[in-house]
Amino acid sequence: MRIIIIGAGTAGYSAAAALSHNKKLNISLIEPTDIPTIGVGESTLPLINEFHKKFDIFSDLQWLENSHGTMKFTIDFRNFTTKKNSVWSHPFYVNPDLEKIHILDNLNLTNEELTDKLFYTQKLKNTGFKKNNQDISNLGAYHFDASLYVKELKQVALSRNVQILNNKIIKINQNNNITQNVILDNGNTLEADLYIDCTGFKNILFENLNSKFTSFTDRLFCDSAITIRLPYINEEIQKVNATLCHALDNGWVWHTSLEGTLAVGYVFSSQHTNADAATIELKTYLTEIYGYESKDLHHNVVKFRSGSLEKSWIGNNISIGLSSFFIEPIESTGIALFQAQIIELNKILETNMQFATNYRALYNKTIKNKIFAVKDFIEMHYILSDRDDSQFWIDAKSITPNATQKKFIDLYKEKEFEEIMNSEIEGIFGSLSWFLLLLGMDTKSI
Ligand SMILES: Cc1cc2nc3c(=O)[nH]c(=O)nc-3n(C[C@H](O)[C@H](O)[C@H](O)COP(=O)(O)OP(=O)(O)OC[C@H]3O[C@@H](n4cnc5c(N)ncnc54)[C@H](O)[C@@H]3O)c2cc1C
Q1: Does residue 321 form part of some domain?
Q2: Is 181 inside any structural domain?
Q3: Which of 5, 127, 132, 211 has the fewest beta carbons under 10 Å from its own?
Q4: What are 80-95's pLDDT values in tens digits?
Q5: Is the pTM of this model over 0.90?
Q6: Measured between alpha carbons, how far is 360 from 249 in angstroms, rounded to an integer?
């Protein structure tokens, strides 16, 4: 089967490296070197370990060293509630069943006390910075420079005979939701059985296909980020095995520890502030907490589209990565969700059957359910806040909980903790994550 992957960002190269483990597939990847990719100092989730292992992508952690990466064991949230200097932690889980039992035995504790006391991954994070180490890497996930990670994936793809073409697509010939061929800027025509769109927000294959795009901006206001790479002033304090998310007046700031630099980004709502004001807010904050001089800080502005295609697979076209969906950067879900897309696609390709309608429908349903389940979880970071010190937080927490969110809020209020923890949840965050979120946002008063 011939596959053309269009686009060479993290999603395109992840798809190429992973799917090419199947020797029956003949894969080409189109990499126009003059169109930039998104790369902000990404933070990932533990699914990345399963993804690498499943497709036999890397055998050791050399890729992490080469990507200037560090290990992470938790995601920490600061000032998402009015409690002064409040912090709650979302740890990764070593043994979820055991953790659930331990939580139920310790319900008098706050999220901070509970995670400190019970979660092994939290302890790993708290006891000094852990250098990259194969033995414990599987207990967590990673921060890395995505542009360097892509180079590592490219080596794997090349070693598995993926053909890489430094071209742009200038025309797509489609009829009745089927792509017949694509025309490159050198005049060549390429044909395939399956076309995978990894062109990010450009989403070029799907422009003329019949797939509705659902925007999430009516419930999730953040749509922009100011990003800065900082040299460390004090590695002891700044470099940690956790992604720190710190709420500000119009959104929140990520702190992602890389080797050599700290990547930060202020994710904000352009309905509530503008890029210039957000830049000043971020730089003032970085001066206050770390002591950077504003004039030394060079920033970029990234706009993003929060939403999802209703169907990510139409005819012989599949959309993976930012071309298919993006929620927002909180909780590091972008890479994990597209890895889940590739895993689902691989299951179907491995059966070696043609693209029967029922498989497409199943794929679309599975992917949509995962994305929407994660969206529910992410919205709760705002809905549960009791902050009312800016219009952003007032608006963000005024969103009416949907049925799933209401169910969890009610269960929490009624102290039905066991029921929360035994709930079946689709997506990439399980019931433990939901419980710790409710506890962490100090939902006792709602
Ligand atoms: C502000 C921000 C912060 C984020 N933080 C995180 C995070 O911490 N953790 C996480 O998991 N995810 C994060 N994400 C999401 C993550 O960056 C993306 O999921 C990931 O980089 C995949 O992007 P992509 O490959 O789909 O798109 P891109 O990186 O945009 O790549 C698109 C590719 O398509 C190519 N292309 C474009 N047009 C054409 C054309 N006409 N012909 C051929 N090729 C073309 C481009 O050259 C490029 O190679 C973040 C996203 C944003 C916006």
Answers
A1: yes
A2: yes
A3: 127
A4: 998 877 889 999 998 9
A5: yes
A6: 43
